[in-house]
Specification:
The protein has 690 residues and is of the alpha/beta class. The chain contains 32 helices and 14 strands. The protein folds into 5 domains: 144 residues, no CATH class; 73 residues, Tetratricopeptide repeat domain (Serine Threonine Protein Phosphatase 5, Tetratricopeptide repeat, Alpha Horseshoe); 191 residues, P-loop containing nucleotide triphosphate hydrolases (Rossmann fold); 66 residues; 89 residues.
Length: 690
């Protein structure tokens, strides 16, 4: 028949989740009840005898009437669509080429595409009733439950994936979504409680338990399971046994993953409270692992709603990289925010997807354009932060200079209140002695203007180390106070590394090992953890240390020439050892120790492979250039440095542009291209005030 392939030459999409309808050529055609039932059955169950299906849908009619009704139904469908959507004689099937939302949901679930599963919302044939077709009604209820189960599994798996990637806020959103699908699942409640706890929000974790207990009592007249109660008590008082947190691969107590009590910071906390009340920006400085991040998070949480901006290794070379991530976070929290068109247009210079129908703005031509650009970014942050009490900006020593300069402008205007927004308080952290000169200058200006305070965080004293060990409620831990203090110097990160080492080696019950030299540093503990990794897993970690913020699993597959499955196994090993969380190191000190373990002869080779792969991905020119330089290929780095300089010059960041031109010229001279180097140096000298 001519109509047999009609569906193959036209595009039809069958929507069964929610209102049943066909979408074709931009039009939506509602489906009659039994027509929707036939199409749903064939889409989810596959080919089926025509008259057996007729018997399901006209259960109270005679066989002759049911068959005639089925023929008329298929004829009406063919006439209304102009295509043979249902094909076959005695056995019916959907024509090839028809897409079905419910089938797509199943396919996404089978392929492990969890986020796509969750995008397919709606109840199967939700607006239709089939009480007069009891067998079909029973099948429909079963099919709805199957799809709901796929969604629940997807929400759970995606929540776990987000947590492994370090996206705890995303994991929490999905945990709440899972509870919306299955509010009586205590496993889902326990997941939510754990996620709140490891996020540093003990109050919300305990509140989740109370919500669970109230729901079970009021709806089911029962009490939570013993394991749910035990978890609540563990969160409330700190763990009492070495029972592992469910979401962590390694068998470590919750208290070692995140100590339940912040100790030894009472005086610093009081200074932070005074600064907060005075409206000052708070900068916390100290050595790696001294507890700056934990203190900043706990303090911000005590003040209300807050978000965290984490600057990352490698970002200091990419202008506005930290600022763009802050904007992305704020926009994700306020998807309904209505920014002025001129503000969105200026933001499109950094985020092209913000451009409206008029497209991207033209290049800046003078300082007035630059001022307008900075004003738009201030307005955006001001409006998007409405209702937000604090922003924690972590690891400022990795922040790029452009973001630091913008932050200076924004923080200097924090007290200029206007309707429609607010600048929140900022609590910032950085490593002592590791800030860039630009960042140092910005902080000094804020302090001298009376707008900020810098508080230096010292290691814990002996009595505080004892209090920390006692709060963990690990048998024998508090008796090791003097040894732990001598070995770690009171550095909280090193203390936890020491306990982790003792727990993993089974030595905590035996006391402090005699062979451990009291060096006062924890790097050797991290080194011992790395030595327990397989060579392949260590290779992945080393690549991540060299790639820095560019590291992605797809990139590792290409550079290391591994299959995705093999790479996934090694990444799982790194996560189990608490080296990586998703595509990031669990702590920047781990990143540094891993980098130090890379054999010098291997470093240039890996950098060259990274540069080539990132070149194909059109990564930021300055990032590609840095990898070519580290790979001993200065001539290949030079064009990328020039491209980066051109971008800085067009943004009127003259000093940065000049420095990049000079770096490009130096690279060309190293490669022996002296004439080209001279031309590039001339461009640098032609920049205003360069």
């Amino acid at each position: 028949m001519a109509g047999d392939d009609a569906a193959g030459t036209q595009v039809f999409h069958l929507e069964l989740l929610g209102e049943a309808r066909l979408r074709h050529d931009g039009a939506h055609v509602p489906l009659e009840r039994r027509t929707a039932a036939v199409l749903a059955w064939l889409a989810l169950e596959g080919p089926h005898p025509k008259y057996r299906l007729a018997g399901l849908l006209w259960a109270e009619s005679s066989e002759v009437t049911a068959r005639n009704n089925m023929r008329q139904l298929l004829r009406r469908l063919r006439l209304s669509t102009g295509a043979e959507l249902v094909q076959g004689g005695d056995v019916l099937s959907l024509a090839e080429g028809i897409t079905v939302d419910a089938s797509q949901l199943q396919a996404h679930a089978l392929a492990g595409r969890h986020s796509q599963v969750l995008e397919q919302e709606g109840v199967l044939l939700s607006s239709l009733e089939f009480d007069d077709c009891p067998e079909f009604h029973a099948w429909l209820e079963s099919a709805r439950e199957r799809l709901d189960k796929l969604r629940r599994r997807a929400a759970s798996a995606e929540s776990e994936a987000r947590e492994r990637a370090g996206d705890l806020s995303g994991a929490l959103v999905l945990a709440e979504k899972l509870l919306g699908m299955d509010p009586y699942s205590e496993e889902a409640w326990r997941r939510l409680m754990r996620l709140h706890y490891v996020s540093g929000d003990r109050g919300s974790a305990l509140n989740a338990f109370e919500r669970c207990r109230r729901l079970l009592r009021e709806e089911l007249d029962t009490q939570p399971l013993p394991q749910t109660v035990a978890l609540a008590r563990e969160i409330e008082r700190g763990p009492t046994t070495s029972h592992a947190a469910r979401v962590q691969p390694a068998k470590l107590p919750l208290s070692v993953l995140r100590p339940p009590v912040l100790v030894g910071r009472e005086r610093v906390w009081a200074r932070m409270e005074e600064a907060w009340e005075a409206g000052l920006t708070i900068f916390l400085s100290g050595e790696p692992g001294v507890g700056k991040t934990r203190l900043a998070h706990d303090f911000a949480a005590s003040r209300g709603g807050h978000i965290t901006l984490e600057s990352r290794p490698g970002e200091m070379h990419v202008a506005y990289s930290s600022h763009v991530r802050l904007l992305r976070q704020l926009l994700a929290q306020r998807p309904d925010a209505r920014l002025e068109p001129w503000v969105r247009r200026e933001l499109a210079r950094l985020m092209p997807d913000m451009a409206g129908p008029e497209g991207l703005p033209p290049p800046m031509v003078d300082e007035a354009d630059r001022s307008r650009f900075l004003e738009a970014n201030c307005q955006a942050v001001y409006q998007l932060c409405s209702g937000l009490d604090a922003i924690v900006a972590d690891d400022l020593h990795y922040m790029d200079a452009a973001t630091a300069e913008f932050a200076l402008l924004m923080l200097s205007r924090r007290h200029d209140t206007q309707p429609g927004g607010a600048f929140p308080h900022f609590v910032d952290t950085f490593r002592k002695g590791e800030l860039t000169p630009v960042a140092i200058g910005c902080i000094q200006q804020l302090v001298e203007a009376g707008l900020a305070i810098v508080i230096e965080l010292e290691p814990l004293e002996t009595d505080s180390v004892g209090a920390l060990l006692g709060s963990l409620e690990l048998a024998g831990a508090e008796s090791l106070t003097d040894n732990v203090m001598r070995y770690t110097g009171g550095n909280p990160l090193f203390i936890m590394e020491a306990l982790r080492h003792l727990l993993e080696s089974g030595g905590l019950e035996r006391g402090w090992p005699e062979h451990v030299h009291p060096s006062g540093r924890g790097r050797d503990l991290i080194q011992q953890r790395l030595e327990r990794l397989s060579p392949q897993a260590l290779q992945v970690a080393r690549l991540a240390a060299l790639a820095k913020t560019s590291f992605q699993l797809e990139l590792a597959v290409e550079v290391l020439e591994m299959t995705p499955l093999t790479l996934a196994q090694h990444v799982s090993e790194l996560e189990a050892a608490h080296v990586l969380r998703g595509e990031r190191f669990t702590h920047d000190l781990l990143f540094e120790v891993v980098r130090e373990t890379i054999p010098p002869s291997l470093i240039p080779l890996l950098h060259r492979r990274l540069a080539s792969a990132l070149e194909q991905r059109k990564a930021a020119p300055v990032v590609v250039a840095q990898h070519w330089l580290e790979g001993k290929e200065p001539e290949r780095a030079a064009p990328h440095l020039v491209a980066a300089a051109n971008a800085e010059a067009s943004a009127f960041r003259h000093m940065e542009a000049a420095l990049l031109y000079f770096r490009a010229a130096t690279a060309l001279e190293e490669a022996g291209a002296f004439e080209e180097a001279a031309r590039v140096r001339a461009r640098a000298r032609g920049i205003p005030s360069a």
